Amino acid sequence: MTPKRKKRLIIILALVFGAGLAVGLTMFALSQNINLFYSTSQIANNEAPVGKRMRMGGMVVDGSVKRASDTLRVSFGLTDYESEVTVVFSGILPDLFREGQGIIAQGKLDENGVFQADEVLAKHDENYMPPEIAETMKKRQEAQQ
Amino acid sequence: MKIKMPRWFYQLASPRWFYDITSMLLPWFSMIALILMITGAVWGLVFAPEDYQQGNSYRIIYIHVPTAILAQSCYMLMAVAGGIGLVWKMKMAHVVAKACAPIGASMAVLALATGAIWGKPTWGAWWVWDARLTSMLVLLFLYIGVIALTSAFEHVASGDKAAAVLALVGVVNIPIIKYSVEWWNTLHQGATFTLTEKPAMPPEMWMPLLIMVIGFYCFFGAILMSRARTEVLQRESRADWVKSLVEQS
Question: What is the CATH number of domain A38-122?
Answer without folding.
Answer: 2.40.50.140
